[in-house]
Amino acid sequence: MNENSPIAARYRLDPDWAWLTSPASVALDGAFTFVHRMSATDVFRAFDIDPGSARLMTAEQALGDPVLRTASFDEGPQWIRVAESGDWTVAVEYSQQKTHVDGVASHLARDTEVVFVAANEGEPAVINYLSHGEYVFALECGAPYDTRGGRRPRLFDEEMSEAGLFDFIPIMPIGDCVVAMMAILGRHLGFSLTPETVNGPLPTAYRMHLYTPPNPPLRVNPQAGAEAEQSPKPPPSSPA
């Protein structure tokens, strides 16, 4: 479907997500990570940040903070703000993409669902959907070719076609693609986010050290334990 059709426009101008392309948004220069049914405390920990150090700050206060404002993509404080929206918790990164670069999203998605969008200004925006250890779907918004990936790359084909996301000449603007894709994912998975939430007071914290991935969970085989309990024990040794 042509991206200029009325149906496609409904995706690109979706009222719940159009704000992502506003100057105040970080969708095109930073990252949003949506995590299903996980506390803000656990999200901070997944980013290797002490949740006890978090302070309530608005976006304006955080971006003007004398420490946080020294952060760059790789250097300085690595920081996030964490919001809660229904059953989803959202980590917001400004000019950083640790969810993608450090693989934080993969660790978060071991036992739940995770969606993230990450972009640098002028480069394609990366959108991933992960679920319970599975790399389900991926897309690069702004690429001049088909970038669908993951275990189920055709999962959203019907809606993507309606939104004009398969029309590569001319290339859909990155922001329009991000809005359309987040509208599609939000409807399928049941998450949303408002600019008032993102810009309002949120717990904000940082770390100065390099990211340390969490230890892999200990895998216990309950069947092995049951077999051990059922195996015959050797008879007691006879007294000398």
UniProtKB/TrEMBL annotation:
InterPro entries: DUF6461. Residues 213-240 are annotated as: Disordered. Pfam families: DUF6461. This is DUF6461 domain-containing protein. It comes from Amycolatopsis halotolerans.
